Amino acid sequence: MSGFSKAAYFLPLVVFVITVLIVPSGVQWLKRLNFGQNIREDGPQSHIGKKGTPTMGGILFIPVGVAATVAADHLMPGSNPAAVLLLSAFALGGLFIGWLDDYLSIKRGKSLGLKARQKLIMQIVLCALFLFGASRVGPAERLAIPVAVESAFSWYHWLVLLIICVWLINAANIADGLDGLAAAQGVVAILSILFGVWALSGGHPQTVIMPVCMIGALLGFLWFNAPPARVFMGDTGSIALGCFVAGYGLLSAPVSIVLLATAVWSLEALSVVVQVSYFKLTHGKRIFRMAPIHHHFELCGWPETQVTVRFVIASIVLGILAPMALAGIAR
User: Fold this and answer.
1) Is 42 helix (H, G, I), strand (E, B) or coil?
2) DSSP string, 73-142
3) Distance from C-alpha of 280 to C-alpha of 141, rounded to nearest angstrom
4) CA 303, CA 184: separation in Å to the nearest integer?
5) Full domain range(s) for residue 216
6) What's the CA gap between 69 and 179, in Å, rounded?
7) N or C: which end of the chain has fewer CB within 10 A?
8) How far is Cα 47 from Cα 54, in angstroms, rounded to an integer?
9) Running DSSP on this structure, what letter comes out for residue 288?
10) How many domains does the chain have?
11) Cα–Cα distance, 252 to 198 (Å, whole number)
12) What is the DSSP letter of 313?
């Protein structure tokens, strides 16, 4: 639909309100199903009290954000149905992988659900399907300016994008370890890419309303996920969120900007890679007290809320640099 509708501008607020209204009932529903969080035994002792807190919260806000994103596309001028449906399918695919991981974790009574190899294979397949679809989406149907996903793929370009996609999904998943951390950083990441795309695209409304709908859902969830969290998004939410951020970024912005906007997520993931590698090479020695790195700072004496706020501040600083850099590209 090419006609303009002012209703689109109210969608993010509507999404926020709907999410805020849905989550309390959803939390009670998750409690009745006994979908409580299992806590790592080797984790910070301050987290022991979180055991049993409802998880799988991603199913309470991701579908709302996706539905509003699709609705916004039909209400704004310059409709991009192919790209929006591709992005929506990518996020919902991540939702399914995360849900399966959370479900198996709860069923087995452990902090881990799917085996790492199983989860990785599923993510690779999902990302490959997304990139294949992106390569078939014409430049005129992209979310903004076709600068990230080229219509003619070379094999190494495709491989690099596949690695980046899988990396960002896992980075978002790893960052979801403190109350409100992943949700808040997700908001910052989407906003920083969005503002840069706004500058690059010349300020077209359709480049803003769609991702802001997901931000509305995230903020509605964050209302209950902020410390002390009443519900966790779980892998159900974090993997889907990683898919949305990676998909939106690669469909609308240069890869370098996407990586800059999500740099704190990458730091979290990199700390795990470094810790595990060093542990194996030195037969038991560690660089950090615990990985991911947010737990290291907790064990150094930082209160959980302080770690969350400081990590979000770091995300905001990097998020400010991302649109500035993208605006420079546009000149």
Assistant:
1) coil
2) HHHSSS--HHHHHHHHHHHHHHHHHHHHHHHHHHHHTSS--S-HHHHHHHHHHHHHHHHHHHHHS-GGGS
3) 47
4) 17
5) 7-330
6) 26
7) C
8) 14
9) S
10) 1
11) 10
12) H
The yes-or-no verdict on residue 175 having pLDDT over 80 is yes
Q: How far apart are CA 223 and CA 268, in angstroms?
A: 24
Within a domain: 322: yes
**Phi–psi pair at 36, nearest 5 degrees:** -100, 155
Q: What is the mean pLDDT of residues 181-187?
A: 82
Three-state DSSP at 54 gives strand
Indicate whether 1 belongs to any domain: no
Q: Measuring CA to CA, which residue among 92, 190, 94, 95 is closest to residue 143?
A: 190
The structure tokens listed for 295 are 């737990």
For 232-250, write each residue's pLDDT tens digit.
998 999 999 999 999 988 8
- In this prediction the pTM is 0.87
Residue 294: name the closest of 313, 271, 262 by CA. 271
State the residue for tokens 């930082």: 302
Q: Provide the residue type at 44 as one letter.
A: P
Q: 238 and 175 in contact (C-beta within 8 Å)? A: yes
pLDDT per position as a tens digit, 270-298: 999 999 999 999 988 999 988 889 889 88
Separation between Cα atoms, residue 245 and residue 132, nearest integer Å: 17
DSSP-assigned letters across all residues of 10-36: HHHHHHHHHHHHHHHHHHHHHHHTT-B
Quick check: is 76 in a domain? yes
Q: What angle do CA 142, 75, 143 make, to 5 degrees?
A: 10
CA 24 remoteness from chain centre: 22
